[in-house]
Amino acid sequence: MRIQVDQDKCCGSGMCVLAAPDVFDQREEDGIVELLDAKPPQTLWPDIREAAAGCPSWAIEVDET
Amino acid sequence: MTAAGPSPASPAGTPTTAHPEPSSDPGTSGGACPYSAHAETSAAPLPETLPNAAPRGACPFDPPPVYQQARREQPVIRTKLWDGSSCWMVTRHDDIRRTLRDDRFSSDSNRPGFPFLTAGRKALTTDNPTFIRMDDPEHARLRRMLTADFMIRKVESMRPQVQELADDLLDAMVKGRQEADFVADFALPLPSVVICLLLGVPYSEHDFFQRCSSIMLRTESTPAQVTAAQDELHAYMAELTRTKRRNPDDGILSRLAERDELSDDDISRMGRLLLVAGHETTANMTALSTLALLRNPRELERMRAAGPEEAKAAVEELLRYLTIIQSGVSRVATEDVAVGDTVIRKGEGVLCMINAANRDEDVFPDADRLDLARPGSRRHLAFGFGVHQCLGQPLARLELQVALTTVLRRLPDLRLAIPFEDVRFRTDMLIYGVHSLPVAW
Ligand code: SF4
Predict the structure, then answer these.
(1) Helix (H, G, I), strand (E, B) or coil at A34
(2) Percent of chain B with pLDDT over 90
(3) Which atom of ligand 1 is nearest to the CA of A13?
(4) A46, B67, B316, B401: least surrounded by Cβ within 10 Å?
């Protein structure tokens, strides 16, 4: 799995941090998403899928191929 | 416009069922709402155009039955607004997520066709709009000046302080008394003190700004009343901003004032938005949640026994089940867009009914049941969706977690002090909840 985040789209909701705190964080200065781990272990995949689906601004892209 | 005057559309609407008498059983039967009327479906066909706001059914925690019926039978439907005009109403979870995440639906209240919920809202938002009534990039520019203050880590660091406040308020509420109004003595002051601290607004002025926000949120307020209340609050905030320029502190208003690109008016608008949104919403969720738990003893015991993680999940379920924004989230199409099987034309308004979406059986099985351990309740849309999704949601979550666990832990005999049938629900306000909640312990 590969993850990409689009910081221009992100509205700083923090939903992804709730869903997968080991993979997503928010930038100190403006609360915008920061990717902590672009190739996370498989155990975290369900949480990451939830984060991507729940992102209100479609800023998280997950490639599972 | 087919009607003039402030209240053309009588709520004569379409009650779809005869409302059964509320049961006086306080809900001893497991986790379900004591009303047995959830299956309040109707054989009556949906009317072509739904009223807004539609009459509520027997259970005051449920969305109006006709919206539930629309979600099942005709999820994109016409609805009639207060001024006689009509727009689209969207009720399914998936359709609403798509709509609110689609930048072809605008939040700009100055665009023709934007659906206003009341005459007062129209007066408020066309003149002097805050960023919730703007589109990107202007919306994002302004919102991003505030996102750092409400990010998860920052808000989480406030937990001990919020806990202390909750304990102090409860101490004061119970001292020498056996009964109190839970709204006035706890549910309202807690978030109100917190947002005042964050903004740098003196809480001692709360009578004043609570009066203004009540007028602004009452559906029957006239445009003149609403405008006057907003102007008063705006002038107060602008004056406070000027004070902060002279004597800065570490509140949000002061920090906004340090930015060269914002005028006093800009800051006043942002402060006004945060102040009103920051206390009215959480206050009503706290009181309504407490009432819902008192009516569902099994869930109440679950909440009382909950550890920190269970309490977090429980709050998500309460947000889903209660959805205090009952009136719909407004957008206007800037192009022709298909929502489900319906094409919404450029310039047509849409109301996204997040209350109906949060009861969508396709997403939440047995959706009309309050189940604090429900898996996936976080998929609710109670904070909206899309780039306008509630900015203060981490703070709202924290306040609700602290408020509900503290009250239930400290007051093991908490109960309603009046018959449930006498509780006054906020059917006359743009944010749902209860006007007061007399409790004993
Ligand atoms: S969920 Fe989306 S919008 Fe929210 S912080 Fe994460 S990336 Fe940004």
Answers:
(1) strand
(2) 80
(3) 4
(4) A46
